[in-house]
Amino acid sequence: MLSIQLIKKRDGFVLSIVLWIVAALLFGIATVASFTKDTQELTQEIDNKLKTELIASDILEILKFYIITADFDNISFKNSMFHNFSYKLPDQIIVDNRWYNISNEIKFRVIDASALLNVGTISVSEIAKSLTTSSELALRSELENSLLDWIDKDNIVSLNGAENATYQLQKRVSYQIRNANALQSVEELQLVNGYDSLSDFNISKFYYGRGTTINLALVDAKRFSDTLNIDILTASSLLERRGDNMSEFLLKTSNLKTFYDDYMGFYLSKELQIEIEVTKSKARTSLYTLIDFREFQKQLYTVIKYNIY
């Protein structure tokens, strides 16, 4: 009787061991299966990322060909040759930074540099004015004087400005200020006192490249008002005419006393900032480039800046 009980206990123990082994094996199988699934998903998303980069590069090459072969007016390029391409582009691309959707996964936008502010050539007062309203005079003074201190060679702090000690002792940053009269990129602005704390700093209104004449047929109401030194209501009224009757707008604007044709105009510079976005599942690629399509030394175009990420 005792031996039978021992046998039953032994069998029960063996069964429990077997069950634990089976459970461990099942857990291992589930873990491997989960890891394999994650690996497959990761591999698929890496493949999607590579595909989005290739598509973005393809779109850029098509846009280059589109622009080189296009007709153009004051605000746009026109080309009707692209209906049969794998990626269909519109007959007209207005270069005011509006988005164009090629598909649910692909979009692009283009803006002519004549509608932007060149940080390499414009004055510190123009930069500060572009980022503030007439009621933000204290902020405008801080932006103007801080940028002036950033690029001048002395260490004398301007009123509302900031020299190197401000950055090292108060902000405790690791970089030195430029102390040279030449910004090297748009992104550099975001390092400067005042600019680094702007909540609505719109980096897309600036560029760093070759100089252009401002195109008043492309700029927004604030830039139009600032450039011609007219009130915003008058500027908005004129820009409404621009949308309805371009010829009338050109005539009225050119007749303003503050219009100077030596640095103002109504034509494209053909120096274009192009942004392309491609998504596929969870993968996303953004391509940004600045290309000058004016011919220099028999080159059809010159790439000034190129980023893809």
Q: Report the uncertain regions.
A: none
Mean pLDDT: 88
What is the strand arrangement across the widest sheet? 4-5-10-11-12
Q: What best-fitting shape do the alpha-carbon axes yield? A: extended
Q: Using the CA coordinates, give the radius of gyration.
A: 30 Å
- Protein structure class: alpha+beta
Q: Termini, distance in Å?
A: 78 Å
Order of helices and strands: HEEEEEEHHHEEHHHEEEE
3D structure, described in words:
The structure is a single chain. This protein has helices at residues 2-68, 124-130, 137-151, 164-171, 221-228, 232-244, 246-254, and strands at 71-72, 76-78, 92-94, 96-101, 106-112, 117-118, 206-207, 214-215, 264-265, 271-280, 283-292, 302-308. It is α+β, with helices and mostly antiparallel strands and 309 residues long. The protein folds into 2 domains: 1-119 and 208-213 and 267-309, no CATH class; 123-202, Orthogonal Bundle (Ribonucleotide Reductase Protein R1, domain 1), CATH 1.10.40.60. It has a 5-stranded antiparallel beta sheet, with helices on one face. Helix 2 packs antiparallel against helix 3 (137-151), helix 5 (221-228) packs across helix 6 and helix 6 (232-244) runs antiparallel to helix 7 (246-254). It starts with a helix and ends with a strand.
